[in-house]
Design brief:
Layout: H1 5-12, H2 33-36, H3 58-70, E1 74-78, H4 81-92, E2 99-103, H5 108-116, E3 120-124, E4 128-129, E5 134-135, H6 140-149, E6 153-159, E7 166-167, H7 170-179, E8 183-187, E9 211-215, H8 216-219, E10 227-231, H9 234-247, H10 254-289, E11 296-297, E12 309-310, E13 314-318, H11 326-337, E14 343-344, E15 348-352, H12 359-373, H13 396-401, E16 404-408, E17 421-423, E18 428-431, H14 439-446, E19 450-452, E20 461-465
Helix pairs in contact: 3-10, 4-5, 4-9, 6-7, 10-12
Bound molecules: pyridoxal-5'-phosphate.
Pyridoxal-5'-phosphate (PLP) binds near residues 81, 82 and 83.
């Protein structure tokens, strides 16, 4: 086995005079931040360090290690997060004009892939989980209906786990899609840690999906932006690699790739022990949290008809039926307990755990929740508006390519949307480019905290096709 990439960078780089990029030349005397940010190890592709876009040395060895770990035919490093893998994966599995079935709550990167590749989307609307601001699992019956309604669909994109850790029965869904002649891409950005050890459920690669995309940085010990894209067969791998050449930089950071390399070695050498520690920490949290009176932690048993399974690594907390919102819970944890959560909504707040957690960190969270819980009072449920299902007039790519205007929301009824308006959580697009804006959709957009992609700085306006 070659030495870890981090060790090689640390040992060799100081010996070379860098007459190549990057322009900081590892000169920390020039600017002190360069030292703290390890510019001494920051190179891009030079002799002896392989090539991300045509790997045959230390990078290829790491990618092969990743493929062995997850059981893929081929795996590829991502230095642009899951976003790069999702864009490349969608393009590798489709032709312009193809129809794609996807969950309405898919991440924006999936929508961007659909628009960029000129695809026609058809949506799966899984049930909402009451009190948790979350989408439930995709049931096989829901997919069955969609396959029957869209016999011309070529690709199924599933998100599993969801942001809040909700899993779907991937082996069943992948089998159904393959039998109907569709390819399957799984956005498993939040599931890189699944299927590698006892105590965590099986992952998307084992389910037989054609392409699976993982963010390493979301749950495993690796830097932000790092990820992997896995292919089911060498042929799919070749198509994926070709597309990754388009979507990934020609100057990949070796700091990021050393982080991926280090993470993969750690998983291969000590994964079993580290996963067992993480699981024990989660079990210790669960035991402590069992005494919460009003706050509720999302577990599959809470709604077995809506939730097929759960990633134990997510701690998703419901405040429904109490006198605080998820936003207030997040704020109190930050101000009074020094704990920063991942996200919050009207009824819920999300704590993400990762391999870097310990029983100490999770018990600190559990005790803070217990202190807050003790002060809560009951309150009537807030209720949730049913999400509108707007009708598409044209595909998103076509709508985005057309001229558009930012018009006052009050004048937009009946016009065709030319941007994404996404409600977080649960990542639900209230309107997608190409969809007709009805009074109901506009009322929901008006009353919500949203991410809007074109009218970001004009809350009372919306982009419409001219
Ligand atoms: C479900 C899902 N998919 C994809 C992404 C994109 O991942 P990345 O930030 O690694 O590009 C995210 C990011 O939050 C996500 O939540």
């Amino acid at each position: 086995m070659t030495e870890p990439l981090y060790d090689r960078l640390s040992r060799e780089l100081a010996r070379h005079l860098p007459m190549h990029m990057p322009g900081h030349k590892r000169n920390a005397a020039l600017a002190p931040y360069l030292r703290g940010l390890r510019a001494d190890l920051d190179i891009t592709e030079i002799e002896g360090y392989d090539n991300l876009h045509a790997p045959e040395g230390i990078l290829l060895e790491g990618m092969e290690r990743a493929a062995r770990l997850w059981g893929a035919a081929a795996s590829y490093y991502l230095v642009g997060g899951s976003t790069a893998g999702i864009l490349a994966g969608i393009r590798a599995l489709t032709r312009p004009g193809d129809k794609v079935i996807l969950q309405r709550g898919s991440h924006l990167s999936v929508y961007h892939g659909v628009a960029l590749c000129g695809l026609v989307p058809a949506y799966l609307y899984p049930p909402r989980v009451p009190g948790f601001d979350a989408w439930g699992s995709v049931a096989p019956a829901l997919l069955h209906e969609a396959l029957a309604a869209h016999p011309d669909a070529r690709l199924l994109v599933l998100t599993c786990p969801g942001y809040e850790g909700i899993l779907s029965d991937l082996p069943a869904l992948v089998r159904m899609a393959h039998q109907a002649g569709l390819r399957v891409l799984v956005d498993a950005a939040h599931g890189a840690h699944l299927g590698l050890a006892e105590g965590f459920p099986a992952g998307a690669v084992a389910a037989g999906a054609d392409i699976v995309v993982h963010s390493l940085h979301k749950t495993l010990p690796a830097h932000t932006q790092t990820g992997l894209a896995h292919a089911l067969t060498p042929e799919i791998g070749a198509a994926l690699a070709e597309q990754l050449d388009l979507f990934q930089t020609s100057s990949p950071s070796y700091l990021l790739m050393a982080s991926i390399d280090g993470c993969l070695r750690l998983l291969a050498e000590e994964g079993e022990k580290l996963f067992a520690h993480w699981r024990q920490a989660l079990d210790a949290f669960a035991q402590e949290a069992a005494s919460l009176r009003r706050l509720r932690i999302l577990r599959g048993q809470a709604a077995p008809d809506l939730i097929w399974g759960m990633d134990p690594g997510k701690i998703h907390i419901s405040c429904a039926g109490t006198d605080i919102t998820g936003h207030a819970l997040m704020d109190t944890l930050r101000r009074q307990h020094g704990i920063e959560l991942e996200a919050a909504g009207p009824d819920s707040a999300l704590a993400m755990t990762g391999m870097g957690d310990s029983a100490d960190t999770l018990l600190r969270l559990a005790r803070a929740l217990a202190a807050i819980d003790a002060r809560l009072a009951d309150a009537p449920p807030r209720g949730e508006l049913p999400l509108a299902r707007p009708q598409a007039v044209c595909p998103p790519g076509e709508a985005l390519a057309a001229p558009f205007d930012l018009v006052p929301m009050a004048q937009a009824e009946g016009l065709v949307c030319a941007e994404y308006a996404v409600l977080y959580p649960p990542g639900a697009p209230l309107a997608v480019p190409g969809e007709r804006l009805t009074g109901q959709v506009l009322a929901q957009i008006d009353g919500a905290t949203l991410l809007k992609t074109r009218s970001k700085h004009a809350p009372d306006r919306i982009a419409v096709m001219r």
